[in-house]
Amino acid sequence: MRVLIPSALQSYTGGPWVEAEGATVGAVLDDLDRRYPGIRFRMVDEQGAIRRHMRIFWRCAMVFDLSTPLAADGELMIVQALSGG
Q1: Backbone CA torsion sign across 65, 67, 69, 73
Q2: Nearest to 1 by CA among 13, 26, 24, 18
Q3: What residue ranges define each of the domains in the chain, with the CATH number in brackets?
């Protein structure tokens, strides 16, 4: 499936869109980490939860759980939330 990578993490991938495989969100992030070592830690914390500043969307719905199932024919969009004042 195609995965949109936020600009802050494109130094790992070299571009905004990459390919990855997996039956769940967690499996896709694991595959991304195999292809681009270190990228998963930037999205998932030490307790295995999606970091507060990251948002993951599948079919226009925000994903909160790494065990969310995915179909192979789609796009997973990973965006980084902005904050400030």
Answers
A1: positive
A2: 18
A3: 2-80 (3.10.20.30)
Within 10 angstroms of residue 72's Cβ, the number of other Cβ atoms is 8
**Phi then psi dihedrals of residue 10, to 5 deg:** -70, -10
Calculated CA dihedral for residues 37, 42, 46, 50, nearest 10 degrees: -120
pLDDT digits (tens, 9 = 90+) for 24-81: 999 999 999 999 999 999 999 999 999 999 999 999 999 999 999 999 889 999 999 8
Strand ranges of the sheet holding 2-4, from the earlier edge strand across to the other edge: 17-19, 2-4, 75-80, 54-58, 61-63
The answer, as to whether pTM is greater than 0.90, is yes
Q: What is the pLDDT of residue 83?
A: 66
**Residue located via tokens 């130094």:** 11
